[in-house]
Amino acid sequence: MYQPALDAIRQRTPLTPQIALVLGSGLGAFANEVENAVTIPYSDIPGWPVSTAIGHAGQLVVGTVAGTPIAVMSGRVHLYEGYSAQQVVFGTRVLGKLGVKTLILTNAAGGLHPDYGQGSLVLINDHINLMAENPCLGPNDDSLGPRFFDMTDAYSADLRARVLAKAAALNIPLHQGVYLALKGPNFETPAEIRAFARLGADLVGMSTVPEVLAANHMGLRCLAISCVTNLAAGISTEKLSHEEVLETGRRVRDTFVRLLKAIIPEVAA
Ligand code: HPA
């Protein structure tokens, strides 16, 4: 199932990326940081789903960042677009089979924690899956991983420690928090946000969790960073909009790119 995609990538580049990086809304600019870049449109890779969301390009960029071989997914697909969880994690699984050891995910999220302001960067330290979806449902593919897999260190504590140290050295404030995932596509109601805060959520969003499940199933290490593009519904009196999400993403982009560039060599080994 994944072989035609692997062959298509192999035909374009001999590089074995150590890290896969998924760029969330508005972070596509990071692809410019990749050296010796080979750009492969998703539409050239058999089986690779193409995003319909605004702010999400659709290409795989393979090359190096600070000497580290990397595959950057510029654009991802979401459950709210109507894709199945298996389609959402297709890229994760292909890159895992290609030899990637570490998956770094970025996303835009709503902030629930009172310490977060608009534009805060937050390292996800755990999640609550309320998507009612899982890419590992159905017969287990033993070539990917075991039927029942552990999620106690789903967001590698070792990698998080290294990233926090690097962020501190760069003077980039970085929080940690729990990400609660929903299918979307609507933003939440204020009552939902109050309920989720009681459940222990610090962030809410519509992505990332399927990929983290697929990656942990395969034994990859994960790291995920949210940009708080807006305070969650009802926390401020503002109405939520995708424009606001994109606008905050743009404002924080340079700092986010600087952080990502700095952590890539830290998490490679
Ligand atoms: N809720 C869900 N997903 C989001 C939000 C939000 O408030 N902001 C950005 N992605």
The third-level CATH topology is Rossmann fold
Q: Any idea what the CATH superfamily is called? A: Nucleoside phosphorylase domain
Which oligomerization state do the chains in this entry correspond to? single chain
Helical run tally:
7
Strand count, sense and barrel status of the largest sheet are:
5 strands, mixed, barrel
Kindly provide the name of the CATH class: Alpha Beta
What shape does the CA trace take? globular
Please state the average pLDDT score: 94
CATH architecture assignment: 3-Layer(aba) Sandwich
Helix content: 25-40%
Bound molecules: hypoxanthine
Percentage of residues in DSSP E strands: 15-25%
Extract low-pLDDT stretches: none
Provide the structure class.
alpha/beta
Q: Give the helices and strands as they follow along the chain.
A: HEEEEHHEEHEHEHEH
Question: What is the rounded distance between the termini?
Answer: 29 Å
Task: Calculate Rg over CA atoms.
Answer: 17 Å
Give the spatial strand order of the biggest sheet: 5-8-7-6-9
Count of discrete structural domains: 1
Could you name the key traits of this structure?
269 residues; alpha/beta; Rossmann fold; five-stranded mixed barrel; 7 helices; 9 strands; 30% helix; globular; binds hypoxanthine
Describe what you observe in this structure.
- The chain is an alpha/beta fold.
- It has one domain: Nucleoside phosphorylase domain (Rossmann fold).
- 30% of the residues lie in helices and 25% in strands.
- The protein contains 7 helices and 9 strands, in the order αββββααββαβαβαβα.
- It has helices spanning 3-12, 85-88, 90-98, 157-169, 190-199, 209-217, 242-268; strands spanning 19-23, 35-41, 59-65, 68-74, 102-111, 121-129, 175-181, 203-205, 221-231.
- It has a 5-stranded mixed barrel.
- The two termini are 29 Å apart.
- Residues 108-110, 187-188, 204-206, 229-230, 232, 240, 245 line the site of hypoxanthine.
